[in-house]
Amino acid sequence: MALEARGVTIRFGGVVAVNGLDLDVRQGEIVALIGPNGAGKTTFINCVSGAYVPQSGRVTWKGGDILGLTPNALGQRGVSRTFQNVASLHDLTVLDIVRLGRSLGRGRTERRSLGLFTTRDPLAEELTETLLAPLGLADARHRPIQMLSYGHRKAVDLARAIAAEPELLLLDEPVAGLSSREAHELADVIRGVRERHGCTILMVEHKMDVVNRTCDRIVVMAAGSRIFDGSSDEVQVDPEVRRVYLGEP
Ligand SMILES: Nc1ncnc2c1ncn2[C@@H]1O[C@H](COP(=O)(O)OP(=O)(O)O)[C@@H](O)[C@H]1O
Ligand SMILES: [Mg+2]
């Protein structure tokens, strides 16, 4: 198993946000993590990405323990994430941010020439062509991020995470707040990342059309625990899932 979480438990005071969670993602798989608000999805992503250290449990990536690692150490192991709420209070440009993302990764791609003695900037050209253009951000590349719409900032955050050329990509509601056209475009980019890089992806997402378009398997969390693990056909008829979402007895 590429990503393996076992018995992950994290409490905040009296609240058990994640309660003995087991979750597996195979190499190259895209798994959706869904569940009602407050289910513990973001908290779990925060554990895997090193922001929180759970009180108990283990998380391994390709056999190595990753709990509590810094973003840099995770970057070196090929792990990258996006954020549910994107920051906007700085004046870095789109290209600056994507370059930062690239510098945090391991740099698996052969670098092109450094462009000495020319005014060309090969890295900027490569990032624009391979990342910003497919996300509709090529024309915005020199604009400060705080000038962009929410949807474009979400796309920049995704571009930053992908720029690291991760082997494991953790996405927290990547299309929240986007129009359905933008959401479908972003979903296609996410699938494209897996196809190009063979990347493994764990994605928190509410929009079921995006989940169905993007993911191979669905895990449902409720009140900190896993209540379902299976296909999108099965999830719709699962009695426990229907009870949690629809209040069926
Ligand atoms: N830093 C924190 N301090 C206190 N409580 C938190 C913190 N982060 C999350 N929680 C609580 O943990 C539970 C799960 O939250 P969260 O992981 O954000 O859920 P989800 O992402 O599934 O909506 C909620 O009850 C939330 O209030
Ligand atoms: Mg959340």
Q: Keyphrases for this structure?
A:
single chain, 249 residues, binds adenosine-5'-diphosphate, binds magnesium ion, 9 helices, alpha/beta
What does this structure look like?
The chain is an alpha/beta fold. It has a single domain, classed as 3-Layer(aba) Sandwich (Rossmann fold). It is built from nine helices and ten strands. It is globular, with a radius of gyration of 18 Å. The model has no long low-confidence stretch (mean pLDDT 89).
The CA-CA distance between the termini, in Å, is 36 Å
Uncertain runs: none
Task: Kindly identify the CATH topology.
Answer: Rossmann fold
The count of DSSP E runs of length 2 or more, i.e. the number of strands, is: 10
Q: Describe the largest sheet.
A: 6 strands, mixed
Shape: globular
Name the beta content range.
Answer: 15-25%
Number of distinct helices: 9
CATH superfamily: P-loop containing nucleotide triphosphate hydrolases
Cα radius of gyration in angstroms: 18 Å
The H-and-E topology, N to C, reads as EEEHEEHEHHHEHEHEEHH
Could you give the topology of this structure?
Layout: E1 3-12, E2 15-25, E3 30-34, H1 41-48, E4 56-61, E5 64-65, H2 71-76, E6 79-81, H3 94-104, H4 122-132, H5 150-163, E7 168-172, H6 180-197, E8 200-204, H7 208-214, E9 217-222, E10 225-230, H8 232-237, H9 239-246
Parallel strand pairs: 3-8, 3-9, 6-7, 7-8
Antiparallel strand pairs: 1-2, 1-4, 4-5, 9-10
Helix pairs in contact: 3-5, 6-7
The structure holds adenosine-5'-diphosphate and magnesium ion.
Adenosine-5'-diphosphate is lined by residues 12, 15, 17, 35, 37-43.
